[in-house]
Every structure is written in structure tokens, then in C-alpha cells.
């Protein structure tokens, strides 16, 4: 039997990086998905391999289950209902399994994703032969949470076959996990993110798991109900970067300038809290919709200034900011920065002509504009035919 899971990407409205250092962040799911399918091999197939096909990045791997058992069984596990961190020893053993696959040098940045796969698979399912296929609409390494969607969709398929979760396997179409099962899933996905990111806050996997719009601080989430339309233009600069390195660079700057950086993180905390109250406040309140949008734009612009202080902006991001500002549309980077994607709020009454003009100008610079719904469902699973 085949099982599929799909997990959304995310945009961060405020608080990236600062959230790693304990500040509040506000994020929403973004309706581009990573899809993972899992099929265990039956005895009659006589196929004793674990195969991983990463379609969107053009990579295929295959290990004999015996080889994986020989390398990893001394680590204990499966741990299933006890999400467990990948120890230094486990990282070393898994790296050996990844290296044996002659990873193409040009794609070596993707090796952490394969390590996360091996850790999650063997920790949850042990040493069973299977084929796992991952496809994605999300650009990889662009700030839209591809690593989290990868870990969440993979974990969702792995847990679906376990007794630790309760799912009606006869139900047709896409279905959601129950809340306590989502908590387990989210914790496992976080362990995968740790392998990819080094020191994640848990924000990205939490948004991908639960969906909607959330306020997040130190591992705790609060669901937010927006009272204003949040139409966002997402511009991909197509400049590749890696979240792990950017998170580490902010930590190094924090070690060099602890007091100054603590004030920066504190300011971001206030921005995120004000932003979440603003979008939740009833309209019309004291403020008209236009005034609310202007405040939101201002908060996003202030957050961008602080991200520049953290050293995670980039020349390509600055070009996007300058271009959208010509149309009186402030923007901010979203995700880890250093390239990747930029977020621009499109006010409800903004004319379609302006949107077309700004999009055309951005695309003429070689950027790619994406529009997708935000605040939709989190991870879902499908046992039968998916629609
Ligand atoms: N579809 C996928 N197939 C294989 N690996 C993936 C896929 N999506 C993500 N990954 C893994 O995640 C890594 C990219 O994660 P990274 O955190 O650097 O960027 P991101 O998650 O896209 O952006 P951000 O963390 O800023 O939101 C890749 O190098 C790879 O290891
Ligand atoms: C940069 C960061 O804040 C968000 C990446 O999408 C890292 C994290 O929260 O783990
Ligand atoms: Mg990531």
C-alpha cells in the first residue's frame, strides 16, 4: 500500500533569525507543497533495498537494508513515540551511508536532507525495505521553508503506518492528523530540521505541520485569526543560500556584539507582537483597513532594517526592495535571507495595473514572482487515490 503526505511551505511576516534567539515571530503557511510518498516492499517483491527518489532535485539513492542495519543498529531505536535527536555518533554513521552513494559534488548542499531522511526513516520505521519519493513545488533553499516541508511530509508518511497515531486508513482523499498526533509529528520533523539547519527555532516545521497563521516564541505557538486580507507578493531573487550558514552567522555576530544584538532581537519581538495584534484586531476598529495596511507595511519595513543589522540581507534583496518602493510598496526578506525570497504586502485596493507593473519590472531583473494563498491547512495524508 502506498501512502502520501503533503506539507506546505511558509512565509515569515516578522521575526526570522530573532526567533532563534527567543524573540516572537509571526508566520503563515504558503500554499506550495512538498509531496512525499512511501511504499513498503512486500515479501514477494524480493527487494531488500531502501530507495529514496528526490524528484525535484534530480537525485536517486538506494541502500541495502542490511547495510543500513549494520551501520546504524548499534544506536538503538526505533524510537517512534519518543522523538530523539541524532547524536554525534549517529551523524557520523549516517554521513558514511550518504558518502557511499557518490553524492554529486555540485549538489553536496543537499546531503543534509538525505541524512535527515535516513535518521527519520530508521528512527521511526527501523530497517524495512521501501521506496520513498519526494516531489516539491517549493523552491529549495529560497526561504519558503522547503526543509521543513520536506521533514514534515516525510514524517507524516512514516508515522501513518505506526500504532502511535490514530488514523482512519479507509477514508478516501486527503485527511488531517489529530492534534496530539500532530504534536508527535512536529517533534520528529524538528529533529530532521536540526540535522539540516543546525539550530532551528522550530518555527518552520510548526507552521508546515499546523498550517494557518501562527505567533511563535520559544517553541510555543498561538494560532492567529487574521481580520484583514493578507495578499502577499513573493519574489524569488533566485540567489541560492543555506539557512544553516546564515543562522550561524547571526549567532557569531551576537557573540561579538551581545548587547547591541540583544536590543535588535528585543525590537523584533515588539514588532512581531504589534504585527500579530494588528492583523487580529477587528476592522473597522480605531483604524480603517488602509491605515492597518500602512502600519503593517511599516512594521515589515522596520523588521527588514533590523534584518540588515543582523547581516542577512543581500544585494539582490536590496534590488527587490528598491524596485517595489518605486510603487510605494515596502518589502522585507522572508526566511533566512542572504538571497532567497522577499515579501511585499499588496494592499486590497491596489490596482491590478500596479501589480502587473511591479511584477514585470521585478521579472525583468531576473527575479521570479510567486503568488499563492497563505494561512491554509497544514500537513495532510492520503491512503487511497489523491485528488
Ligand atoms: N524537495 C526536496 N528534496 C530534497 N531535499 C530537500 C527538499 N527540500 C528541502 N530539502 C533539503 O533542505 C535544504 C534546504 O533547506 P534550507 O533550510 O537551507 O532552505 P529553505 O528551507 O528552503 O529556506 P528557509 O529555511 O529559509 O525557509 C536542502 O539543501 C535539502 O537538504
Ligand atoms: C532564519 C530562521 O529564523 C527561519 C528560516 O525560515 C531559522 C529558524 O527559525 O529556525
Ligand atoms: Mg529551512
From TrEMBL:
Where, by residue number, does the polypeptide cross the bilayer? none
Query: What residues does the GHMP kinase C-terminal domain cover?
Result: 294-346
Q: One cellular component GO annotation, for this chain's record?
A: cytosol
The answer, when asked if Zinc is one of the entry's keywords, is no
- The residues the entry assigns to the signal sequence are none
Q: Please state the pathway this protein functions in, per its UniProt record.
A: Isoprenoid biosynthesis; isopentenyl diphosphate biosynthesis via mevalonate pathway; isopentenyl diphosphate from (R)-mevalonate: step 1/3
Q: Name one GO molecular function term.
A: metal ion binding
Kindly report, in one word, the top-level EC class recorded for this enzyme. Answer: transferase
The record's EC number reads 2.7.1.36
Q: Which PROSITE patterns does the entry mention?
A: GHMP_KINASES_ATP
Cross-referenced SUPFAM superfamilies? GHMP Kinase, C-terminal domain, Ribosomal protein S5 domain 2-like
Q: Fetch the NCBIfam families from UniProt.
A: mevalon_kin
Family stated for the protein in its record: Belongs to the GHMP kinase family. Mevalonate kinase subfamily.
Q: What is this protein called?
A: Mevalonate kinase
Organism, per UniProt?
Answer: Pistacia terebinthus subsp. palaestina
Q: What is the lineage of its organism?
A: Eukaryota, Viridiplantae, Streptophyta, Embryophyta, Tracheophyta
Amino acid at each position: 500500500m502506498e501512502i502520501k503526505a503533503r506539507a506546505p511551505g511558509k512565509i515569515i511576516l516578522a521575526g526570522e533569525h530573532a526567533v532563534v534567539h527567543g524573540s516572537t515571530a509571526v508566520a503563515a503557511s504558503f500554499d506550495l507543497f512538498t509531496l512525499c510518498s512511501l511504499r513498503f516492499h512486500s515479501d514477494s517483491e524480493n527487494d531488500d533495498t531502501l530507495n529514496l527518489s528526490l524528484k525535484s532535485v534530480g537525485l536517486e539513492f538506494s541502500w541495502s537494508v542490511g547495510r543500513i542495519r549494520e551501520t546504524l543498529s548499534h544506536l538503538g531505536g526505533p524510537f517512534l513515540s519518543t522523538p530523539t535527536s541524532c547524536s554525534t555518533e549517529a551523524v557520523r554513521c549516517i554521513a558514511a551511508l550518504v558518502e557511499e552513494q557518490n553524492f554529486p559534488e555540485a549538489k553536496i548542499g543537499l546531503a543534509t536532507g538525505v541524512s535527515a531522511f535516513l535518521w527519520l526513516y530508521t528512527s521511526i520505521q527501523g530497517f524495512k525495505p521501501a521506496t520513498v519519493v519526494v516531489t516539491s513545488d517549493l523552491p529549495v533553499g529560497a526561504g519558503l521553508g522547503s526543509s521543513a516541508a520536506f521533514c514534515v511530509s516525510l514524517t507524516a508518511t512514516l508515522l501513518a503506518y505506526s500504532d502511535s497515531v490514530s488514523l482512519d486508513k479507509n477514508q478516501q482523499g486527503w485527511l488531517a492528523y489529530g492534534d496530539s498526533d500532530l504534536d508527535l509529528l512536529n517533534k520528529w520533523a524538528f529533529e530532521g530540521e536540526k540535522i539540516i539547519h543546525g539550530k532551528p527555532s522550530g518555527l518552520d516545521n510548526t507552521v508546515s505541520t499546523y498550517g494557518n497563521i501562527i505567533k511563535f516564541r520559544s517553541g510555543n505557538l498561538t494560532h492567529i485569526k487574521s481580520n484583514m486580507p493578507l495578499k502577499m507578493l513573493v519574489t524569488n531573487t533566485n540567489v541560492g543560500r543555506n539557512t544553516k550558514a546564515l543562522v550561524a552567522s547571526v549567532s557569531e555576530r551576537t557573540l561579538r556584539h551581545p548587547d547591541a544584538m540583544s536590543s535588535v532581537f528585543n525590537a523584533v519581538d515588539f514588532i512581531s507582537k504589534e504585527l500579530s495584534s494588528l492583523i487580529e484586531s477587528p476592522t473597522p476598529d480605531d483604524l480603517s483597513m488602509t491605515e492597518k495596511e500602512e502600519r503593517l507595511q511599516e512594521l515589515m519595513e522596520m523588521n527588514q532594517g533590523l534584518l540588515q543589522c543582523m547581516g542577512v540581507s543581500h544585494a539582490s534583496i536590496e534590488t527587490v526592495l528598491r524596485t517595489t518602493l518605486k510603487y510605494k510598496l515596502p518589502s522585507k526578506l522572508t526566511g533566512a535571507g542572504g538571497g532567497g525570497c522577499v515579501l511585499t504586502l499588496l494592499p486590497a485596493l491596489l490596482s491590478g495595473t500596479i501589480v502587473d507593473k511591479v511584477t514585470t519590472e521585478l521579472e525583468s531583473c531576473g527575479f521570479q514572482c510567486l503568488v499563492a494563498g497563505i494561512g491554509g491547512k497544514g500537513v495532510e495524508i492520503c491512503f487511497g487515490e489523491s485528488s
